[in-house]
Amino acid sequence: MIQSAEPPIADRALVAPAHEGMGARAGEPRNYVGIVRAVVLVVLAAVALTTPGFLSQPSILSLLTTVSFIGCVAVGMTLITISGNIMSFALGALVGATAMVFVLAVNWGGFAFGLVAALAFAGLTNALQGFLIGWLRANPIIVSIAALALIYGVAEAFAAHGTIYAAAGTSYGGFKGRVAGIPVEFAVFVCVTALAQFTLSLTPFGRNLFLVGSSFRAAEAVGVRTWRAITGAYLWAGLFTAPAGIMLAIRYDAASMNYGMGYEYEAIAAVLVGGTIIKGGEGSVLRTLAGAIIIGVIQVVLVLQGLRTEWQYLIAGLIVLGVIALQTPGTRD
After folding, report:
1. Which listed site, 22, 45, 249, 292, has its alpha carbon 20 to 30 Å from 172?
2. Is 97 in contact with 201 (CB distance < 8 Å)?
C-alpha cells in the first residue's frame, strides 16, 4: 500500500515552533479535532445505516458513481491546496468544458483522439493558471474566478444550444458500464487516486510541492523553483479533474457546462473533510478519498430522505465552514 505523503523533514525543522513548551498546547486542539471527527463519523454511519434503502444495490452503485465524479475533482483540488494556494473555483467549470471538448473531438477523430484532446485541454488550461500564480505571484482566488468566467464564456460561445451530443453509434470501448460488478467510473477514480498518491509520495515534484506549501520562502532558500512546482500542481490538477468530464460525457452521450456545476464546492468539502490542511504543506490523496466517500454518503442519504439539491449545497457549505473552524486551533502559530 502506498503510504500517505508528509512534508519533508528539513522543512518541518524550518517551521518548527520557537518554544518547546508550545508542543503540548498545540497537541490539545488536534486531540479535540480528532474526537469531534470520530463523533461525527459515528453519527453519520448511524444515520446512513438506518436510512431505508441505503444498503440496496442501486444506492450503493449510485454512491460509487457519485464518489467517482466528486473524487476526481477533489484529487486535483488536493494538489492545489497542498501547494499553499487554498483552492480553485474553476475546476467545476473545467469538468463541463472538458466534457464538451471530448465529445467534439470524438465526433471528429474518434475515441482515442477525444481522450488525448480532453486531457490536453484540461491540463494546459489549468497549467496556465498555475503559471500566472507561480511566476507572476497572482492571487490564486482571483485567478480561479477569472478562469471560471473565461471558461464559461468561451464554452457558451461555442455551444449555441448549450449541449453538444455525441454522434449516433459512438463507441467508447470498455469505458461504459461496469467492471467486475462495480461502475467503470469508480475503477477510473481508483486509478486516478493511486497515480496522484504516487506522484505526491515518491517523486521529487511531490516533495517540492509539500515544501512550497509549508514555507514558500524556505523552498526558495533551498533552491526549489517554486513557479515550476505551482505550475505542475495546477497541471496535474487539470489532468486529474479531466476524467470526471470525460466519464460524464460517456455516461450521457452528451456534454454541457451544467455537468460540472457545484463540483468545486463538493471537492473542497471532500479535501477538507479528508484532513488536508487549508493553509497548505500537509495532506494526502488517500485522505481525500476518505473525504469524498463521506461527502458521497451524505449526498445519498439526503436524496433518500427526499431533500432537494439546495439542501445538498447548504450541507456542503456548513461542512466546509465546520472543518475550517476545527482546523484553525490546530494550525494557528
Report:
1. 292
2. no
Length of the chain: 333
Angle between the 285-304 and 57-82 helix axes, to the nearest 10 degrees?
A: 140
- The rounded distance, in Å, linking the Cα atoms of 228 and 230 is 5
3-class DSSP assignment, residue 172: coil
Whether the per-residue pLDDT at 83 is higher than 90: the answer is yes
Long-range contacts of 112-117 (CB under 8 A, 24+ apart): 114/246, 115/246
- Identify whether the C-beta of residue 241 lies closer than 8 Å to the C-beta of residue 91: yes
Task: Evaluate whether 69 touches 293 at the Cβ level (below 8 Å).
Answer: no
Three-class secondary structure assignment of 71-127: HHHHHHHHHHHHCCCCCCCCHHHHHHHHHHHHHHHHHHHCHHHHHHHHHHHHHHHHH
Q: Does the model's pTM come out above 0.90?
A: no
Q: How far apart are CA 99 and CA 46, in angstroms?
A: 37
The DSSP 8-state label assigned to residue 164 in this structure reads: E
Tell me what pLDDT residue 11 has. 45
Tens digit of pLDDT for each residue in 161-195?
Answer: 678 999 888 888 778 888 888 999 999 999 999 99
The SS3 of residue 163 is strand
Whether residue 271 contacts residue 291, with contact meaning beta carbons closer than 8 Å, is answered with yes
Backbone φ, ψ for residue 164 (5° rounding) = -115, 130
Stretch among 106-110, 123-127, 130-134, 304-308 having the lowest mean pLDDT:
304-308
